[in-house]
Design a protein that fits this description.
Blueprint (H helix, E strand, L loop, with lengths): L10 H32 L2 H37 L3 H35 L5 H14 L3 H16 L3 H25 L4 H24 L15 H10 L1 H24 L2 H37 L3 H28 L1 H9 L3 H14 L3 H16 L3 H53 L1 H4 L2
Helix pairs in contact: 1-2, 1-6, 1-7, 1-10, 2-3, 2-4, 2-5, 2-8, 2-9, 2-10, 3-4, 3-5, 4-7, 5-6, 5-7, 6-7, 9-10, 9-15, 10-11, 10-13, 10-14, 11-14, 12-13, 13-15, 14-15
Amino acid sequence: MPIQLSEHFTYSKLLRFTLPSVIMVIFTSIYSVIDGLFVSQFVGETPFAAVNIIWPFIMILGAIGFMFGSGGSALVAKTLGEGRIFKANRIFSLLIYATLILGSTFAVCGLLFIKPLVAAFGVEGVLLDECMVYASILLPAVPMLMLQVIFQQFMSTAARPKLGLIITVVAGVANFGLDALFIIVWQWGVAGAAWATAASQIIGAVVPLLYFIFPNKSLLHLGKTRFYFSALLKSASNGVSEFVSNISMSVVCMLYNYQLLRIVGEDGVVAYGIISYVTFIFWAAFIGYTIGSNPIVSFHFGAENKKELQSLWRKSLFLITISGVILTLLAELFAIPIAAVFIGYDDELTEMTAIGFRIYALSFLFAGFNIYASGFFTALNNGLISATIALMRTLIFECLCVLILPIFFGLNGIWCAIIVAEILAFIVSFGFFFKLKKRYGY
């Protein structure tokens, strides 16, 4: 029997409810990793660099899905907690339709402006050609990416995280199989990687779309709606932290690529591409837990159950502490094998990547708290605090560190930038935790 949002959550129940979301985000993060792995092994370093350059642009366009997914699911869960099921479904339907319309608009704009944007970062020649091949296939699929992201969030709100996990696993397996077919068997090169990813995004979007359209046993159904401007505004403002976070991460990624091209050349972009891929898989544990636990927080916030909020907050901080230590140790132990999986054919590049990842991975000790803090305040419908944490963490602190630290420490300064940024964000996060503790009663 599915666990309901209204229940009391022990450690066991909390883990059972959030684990599908954790695994779901891990599989989602593996999509781009699979592309990178196949491209680096079977196509070459230049196409691999092209994938790393284009992906941040795709994620910027897809950020609206994260915004409506996190902010909208918090609003819908809160509305359900207040007992207004009919209105919750109307808001849910409005958010899905708005996401589809905006996604289509962004896809068209992306196709028009992607080439001059990429060229402005100093990309030229064969590398620019490979970038355009990859982008021309993935940009039309942006609406599917956005729907996939928003449905991943709403599956937990609908108390169906296991179904969300199954859909994501199927999409991930399809991505893997199609990569093998398109790249190895049919030798489509970087275009094959793009088609495989686009196909997996279509699966991840269309299957849950059909689930919510047809009668189901969850709390949410897709149907008629009306234009609730206040609900759209609230969802956008509440989820602006995730919007800012995803755009900021993409901007930071571009800045890393720029600095690495300047300092060590194309090999630096390849090394950072591997590090960022693997890092996101590790971060997926924190992101997935936050996505999975947020509807619970929002529901009990709407129901004014402060005792349960307090229990959830304390349990979450304990679980994140343990997870951060374990993930850091795993990263330090397996840095060389992880790098070798991607570029084992180049010993020098493997060593550079492993050293960079070992430094970079120390940030895991603090990243989980910052990810959870931003998501926690989103769940409490406080978009301003959530956005402030996300903006400071993913844009201001990290951009400054990427620009300043290489001046004094060279390449290692680039790898250390994330550690300093996460520590500074950790201080900000806990400052807000304790300042607002009495207001929300957690």
